[in-house]
Backbone:
């Protein structure tokens, strides 16, 4: 084994030891000081890595500028879209103190960790470009370190909660680290560092945050890095094929716009941010009109004038969402009740449904596209009962 191999293994072994130390000691006993300890550790790791392997200067080339501009552009688009949606769905007041001393206290350790981690990633990757298995192992350990820091205790017996943590935290961290490692390997540390410093720090300093909900936040956390990867890969492909003078003009194409608009609209429909939203059907009670596994486009309703007998309505009773046909409207003791029945059922629903329970009416159905969410939901419920 050559000297460089020994140095590399020592660095990764140290990283592995800290991951175990963090989870077994720091996390369990001194979590309050975990950020400060991790910041100090990453400063030491970066210093040792530079002393052992050296630091290749990040040359400012045309491709570095293009990929950096792509990253900044996508970040700006993210803020425009997310805060634009915030105007429709509302904002949350920042839970962190916005007093200047508090902001410095909140962001100092995280910024140190981000900068050192990205420079450490860059040093490891750039000095081992000819050893892809080692680069993969290094990136895996860096990702595990971030997961150890950000993922709290998971109750694997609660599959719904586990799935939520997986989609809201684990997959976004994995997605981010894959793309940041790709950028470090092919471009340098500047685009990745910009991405981290903006996307991971803005929550500490912005007075209001769009209330997009966990689903949208998960989609952003997973999708935004992948979007940077797709455009960076396109740029790099054009650059290395000898047409770098066309990179800037061709990076963003008009043909991308419909796809991006479709994705944004689809995500918003599923999340219920529009006056219309998509809902998967989990039973056959409306067969043959609507089958299990179909999805329906639901129009939100506000008052009794929005619905009439014969409409297929969406209502919520005892935390269960149902889609049945409105067959009658009755007034009893000064209260209006809505009588519903599934087309495939033999009897009407035995519930006292009022206007506040009705969430919308079905406009039309889309066959089969609700199958994955319906059967995944059933699986969670089955496992939870078991």
Residues:
């Amino acid at each position: 084994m050559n000297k460089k191999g020994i140095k590399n293994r020592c660095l990764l072994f140290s990283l592995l030891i800290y991951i175990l130390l963090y989870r077994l000691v720091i996390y369990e006993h001194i979590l309050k000081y975990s950020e400060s300890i991790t910041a100090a550790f990453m400063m030491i790791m970066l210093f040792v890595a530079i002393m052992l392997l050296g630091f290749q200067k990040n040359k400012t080339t045309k491709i570095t500028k293009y990929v950096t501009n792509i990253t900044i552009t996508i970040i700006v688009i993210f803020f425009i879209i997310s805060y634009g949606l915030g105007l429709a769905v509302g904002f949350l007041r920042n839970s962190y103190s916005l007093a200047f001393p508090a902001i410095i206290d909140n962001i100092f350790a995280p910024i140190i960790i981000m900068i050192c981690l990205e420079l450490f990633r860059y040093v490891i990757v750039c000095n081992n470009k000819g050893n892809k298995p080692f680069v993969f192992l290094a990136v895996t350990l860096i990702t595990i370190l971030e997961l150890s820091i950000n993922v709290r205790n998971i109750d694997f017996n609660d599959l719904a909660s586990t799935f939520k943590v997986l989609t809201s935290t684990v997959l976004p961290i994995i997605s981010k680290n894959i793309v940041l490692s790709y950028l470090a390997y092919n471009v340098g540390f500047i685009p990745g560092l910009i991405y981290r410093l903006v996307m991971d720090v803005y929550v500490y300093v912005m007075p209001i945050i769009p209330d997009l909900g966990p689903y949208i936040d998960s989609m952003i956390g997973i999708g935004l890095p992948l979007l940077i990867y797709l455009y960076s890969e396109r740029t790099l492909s054009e650059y290395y094929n000898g047409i770098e003078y066309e990179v800037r003009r061709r990076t963003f194409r008009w043909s991308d716009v419909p796809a991006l608009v479709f994705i944004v609209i689809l995500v918003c429909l599923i999340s219920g941010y529009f006056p219309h939203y998509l809902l998967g059907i989990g039973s056959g009670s409306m067969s043959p009109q609507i089958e299990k596994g179909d999805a329906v486009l639901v129009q939100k309703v506000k008052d009794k004038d929005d619905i009439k007998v014969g409409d297929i309505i969406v209502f919520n009773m005892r935390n269960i969402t149902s889609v049945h046909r409105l067959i009658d409207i009755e007034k009893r003791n000064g209260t209006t009740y809505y009588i519903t029945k599934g087309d495939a059922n033999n009897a009407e629903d035995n519930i006292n449904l009022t206007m506040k329970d009705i969430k919308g009416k079905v406009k039309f159905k889309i066959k089969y596209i609700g199958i994955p969410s319906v059967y995944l939901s059933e699986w969670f419920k089955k496992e939870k009962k078991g």
In short: DSSP finds twelve helices and eight strands in the chain. Confidence is low (pLDDT under 50) at residues 244-249. Strands lie at 91-93, 208-210, 276-280, 295-300, 312-317, 320-332, 335-341, 358-366. The first strand starts at residue 91 and ends at 93.
